[in-house]
Amino acid sequence: MADVIDHMWIDGALTPAADARISAVDHAITVGDGVFETVPLNNGTPFALGRHLARLRRSAEQVALDILWTDAEIRKAIESVAGTRDGLARLRITLTGGDSPLSSSRGSGQSRLIIATGPRLAATSTADVVTVPWTRNERGALAGVKSTSYGENVRSLRVAVRSGATEAIMANTQDQLCEGTGSNIVIEFQGRLVTPPLSSGCLAGVTRQLVLEVALESGAPIAEFDVPFSALRHTTEAFLTSSTRDVQPIATIDGKALRSAPGPLTSPIAAAFARLRSSKTDP
Question: For residue 228, what is the DSSP state?
Answer without folding.
Answer: B
